[in-house]
Structures are given as C-alpha cells and as structure tokens.
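sry for the spam today, last one i promise. struct tokens for design, 216 residues
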C-alpha cells in the first residue's frame, strides 16, 4: 500500500497533466487542495494594520488569477514544486498589498524575508505568540492568557529573524523539511537542525524571563 505522500505526489502529477492538456479546472483544484495552508500563511504574515481590511480568501483568489496568467510559463519550466509556486504567488500578492496600503514603511528589509529572489512579509511575533499559546478555553482565563501572550511575544521578538521564520514555516505553515529548505535556500539537513535549535532558543529565552515557562 502506498503512503499518503506517494498518493499526494501522484494526484499532483495528474493535476499537472490535466493543466498541460488545457483543463482550466485543474489550476482551481490545485489551489483548493492547498487552500487551508495558504490561508494560514496569509494570516500569519498579514500586517496587523490591515487586519479586518484584507481577507485571506481575497488574497488567494487574486493569486489564483495571477497563476492562470503564468501557468504556461510554469509548466514549461517548473523551478519549484506546485505548492511552493502557489505559495510564492500568494506571498507576492501579499507583499504588493502591503506596499500599496502601507507604502515605504514596508520597504524596510528587516521586515521582509528572502523568497526566490523576492520577498514577503515576515510572520508577525504577535501571530506566532498567539499560535504558540493556542486559544483560551474560558473568559476567566483571558487575563492570564493576555499576560502569557505578551511574554511569549517578547520572547519571539528576541529570536533571530531566521529562527522566527523557520518556526513559522515548519510549525504553523506546516511545510515539510524539504519545502522549508527550498524556501530558505538552504540544505534540508541544515533546515532541520535550524528548526530544532530555534525551538530550543525560544524555550531557553522564555525560561530566562520573569514568570519563566509557567502556564505555557
């Protein structure tokens, strides 16, 4: 019996064959199968000033239109796996929206991470902290969680940008080791080690702060 990864690879190959044959629904199917992962990526990287003004679904729909325009070029010379290509287009669209709404403030290189010779907004420390803590279960826990959230966000801010990025890619966007390595332009083994070290640094940073790891 084949593994899930093997089935996914076979399914992707079939979708690409249909796309090469000119079946327009194939591209929509590609986006549909990765919709949740792409939504998580947008939600993690959307600037807090644009929350409520820009919907993740709209960003992905715009990227889908761009993908249709570029599909022929991609199929002729695919330089990355299909999912990473879709993610690249969504990230590109997200950066365009950030620069359109926020202007030159988003041109600060410290707020962007390299992606295929382009850039996209880095995952926000607030979003990372919220994801690390998860959702509170009752209103009575709200005050405690708010304090924990600030503590985790401060710890995340102390991390090296690449450490924050690898945690976002692997832990929240759920990229595989190979996918994360390709996004970052490093070897797969190096990406795996970087992820483990980043998690340890985050834990050590939290442990050294007032309140430590209590409740986290």
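last one done:
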């Amino acid at each position: 019996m084949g593994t899930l990864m093997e089935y996914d690879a076979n399914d992707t190959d079939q979708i690409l064959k249909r796309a090469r044959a000119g079946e327009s629904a194939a591209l929509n199917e590609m986006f549909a199968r990765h919709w949740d992962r792409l939504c998580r990526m947008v939600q993690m990287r959307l600037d807090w000033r644009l929350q409520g003004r820009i919907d993740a679904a709209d960003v992905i729909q715009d990227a889908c239109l761009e993908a249709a325009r570029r599909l022929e070029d991609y199929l002729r010379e695919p330089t990355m796996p299909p999912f990473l290509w879709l993610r690249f287009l969504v990230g590109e669209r997200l950066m365009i929206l950030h620069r359109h709404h926020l202007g030159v403030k988003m041109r600060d290189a410290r707020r962007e991470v390299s992606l295929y010779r382009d850039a996209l907004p880095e995952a926000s420390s607030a979003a990372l902290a919220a994801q690390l803590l998860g959702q509170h279960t009752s209103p009575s826990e709200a005050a405690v969680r708010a304090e924990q959230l600030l503590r985790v966000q401060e710890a995340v801010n102390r991390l090296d940008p690449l450490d924050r990025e690898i945690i976002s890619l692997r832990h929240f966007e759920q990229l595989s080791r190979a996918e994360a390595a390709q996004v970052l332009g490093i070897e797969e083994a190096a990406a795996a080690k970087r992820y483990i070290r980043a998690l340890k640094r985050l834990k050590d940073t939290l442990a050294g702060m007032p309140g430590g790891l209590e409740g986290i």
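The chain has ten helices and two strands. ok im logging off now
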